[in-house]
């Protein structure tokens, strides 16, 4: 895998249960300040095979990106199971549940 992809994976895996991060902050943690779309692509293509906590990643405005009927309900349920509240519109309080983490480097398991 490409080094930037490995750094994104490491940043995604660093988000702890009960917390959320946004695509922008994951990109920044991976050393890609303009890489939010790359984070989306990694999640779309590798979430299952790399066991990524995709449900913990939301938009920078606090909203779940998935629309109703296309995954929002599942993401909301997974977040609630970890103690993260989302309102009916799919918004999470980033002040309470947000996690910015730190710069991520791939570990020895990559």
In percent terms, what proportion of residues is strand? under 5%
What is the straight-line distance between the termini? 9 Å
Coarse shape: globular
Give the integer mean of the pLDDT values. 92
Describe the 3D structure.
The protein is mainly alpha-helical and 110 residues long. It has one domain (3-91): Orthogonal Bundle (Arc Repressor Mutant, subunit A), CATH 1.10.10.10. Helix content is 40%, strand content 4%. It has helices spanning 3-14, 23-29, 36-46, 72-81, 94-97; strands at residues 21-22, 57-58. A two-stranded parallel sheet has the order 1-2. α2 crosses α3. It is globular, with a radius of gyration of 13 Å.
Task: List its salient traits.
two-stranded parallel ribbon; 110 residues; mainly alpha
Show the helix and strand layout.
Layout: H1 3-14, E1 21-22, H2 23-29, H3 36-46, E2 57-58, H4 72-81, H5 94-97
Parallel strand pairs: 1-2
Helix pairs in contact: 2-3
Short description:
This protein has 110 residues and is mainly alpha-helical. It has helices at residues 3-14, 23-29, 36-46, 72-81, 94-97, and strands spanning 21-22, 57-58.
